[in-house]
Every structure is written in structure tokens, then in C-alpha cells.
Amino acid sequence: MRSRLATTMEVDGLSAFSLREFGCEQNLLSRPDGSSSFVQGDTSVLAGVYGPAEVKISKEIYDRATMEVVIQPKVGLPGVKERAREQCVRETCEAALLSTLHPRSSLSLVLQVVHDDGSLLSCCLNAACMALMDAGLPMGCLFCGVTCAIDPEGHIVTDPTAQQEKVPHRSLAPCRLLLSLGYRALGYRALTVIRVQGARVQGSYCR
With left for phi above 0 and alpha for psi between -120 and 50, is residue 125 left, alpha or beta? Predict the structure, then answer.
């Protein structure tokens, strides 16, 4: 199933932003308990969920399931950037999952990067959510991700491409934000991670 979103909004009468065309497909793979493919512009991620399954004694948690996230790059072995993204995805999934319903068990999420054309972390979050839904795992809320760039005048550029992320541009400040949001039937709820990356501000913030 494919969808297209081209909304334009103004913030304080200055900022306008929209998202690239995106699409999602579930139940693509036969071996995982749940799988999905999420495409956001030219960025594409394939996700597979395994579990609940038996967990190693060394990783066992008595009152909830153990969540493991692995991000495989398109080429080469995972590095520091992949480990940071894995932590962000894991914390977001743990905040949304009702893992206490499966104590002393293991949940594994594998994300394969098919192509990276910017906003990769938000695409990984969206693929992860769709895969968890396809696996039928109990969740307290759904979540999604979006990447934003802010220029020196405070204008917001959503869903930046790889070129916008890497090449210095007069209209883009060296600061990128990724917001992880969750939705409940009774209202919106901010999940664990709001990541801020850039020359001016770095860190992770929780709400």
C-alpha cells in the first residue's frame, strides 16, 4: 500500500514543511513473525520481528521481555552510527510495547537498510512500528518518526534528503532533530526519545 502526504503548515507565520512520498507493505517475509517494508522518498528499510522466543539466561529479565534491535547497513558492517540508531529504536519500541505480558522472553527486531537518501532514523522507526503491528505484539500505543532540519532563521525543513544532511547550505543550519511520537486512543503521548544532532546542540531528551 502506498500513500502520499504533501501537507504544508506554517509555524509563527514563517515555516512551511512537507513530507516526501512514502509507502509501506507488511507481511513480506515468511520466516519472521512480523515484517514490513517502509519507503520514504528514496530511503527504504526492511524490518523483521522475531518472538516472543526463549531468551538466554544472561539476558533474561524476570518481569518483562528483552528487546534486541539490530540495524544492518546496505554495505559493510554496523558501526557507531548504527549502534546509536539501534539504541534510539530500542528505547522507542520498549516505551510502546507491553513487554510485561511476555516476561523472561526475547523480542528481536532486525532492520535492513535497502537505500539511504536521508532521514534514515525516522524511516527505521516507521518500519519498526509496522513490523511490530504485523507480528501482533501487544502495544500501548503506536509511534512514528520524523526528521527535521532548522535553518539559522528558525525555519523548519522536514524529511531532509541525504544531500541536505551532508552538504552545508546557506538555508540549513548544522542541526537535525528527530522526534519520536506515540498516539493513544485518548490522545497524543510523547515517547522516550527526542534526539538532537548537530554542531550547535547534541544530546537525547525524554518527555
Answer: alpha
Q: In DSSP terms, which residues pair with 11 in a beta bridge?
A: 15
The pTM (predicted TM-score) of the whole model is: 0.78
DSSP code per residue over 5-59: ----EEETTTEEE----EEEEE---SSSSEEEEEEETTEEEEEEEEEEE---GGG
Residue 86, phi then psi, degrees to nearest 5: -60, -40
Dihedral sign of CA atoms 5, 163, 115, 200 in order: negative
Residue 162 near residue 117 (C-beta atoms within 8 A) = yes
Segment 132-187, tens digit of pLDDT? 999 999 998 888 888 877 665 666 778 888 877 765 554 454 444 444 444 443 44
The yes-or-no verdict on residue 5 having pLDDT over 60 is no
Beta 142-150 vs 156-158: how paired, if at all? antiparallel
Asked if 165 and 118 count as a contact pair (C-beta separation under 8 A), the reply is yes
Q: Cell for 12?
A: 509563527
Q: Cell 550547535 identifies what position? A: 200
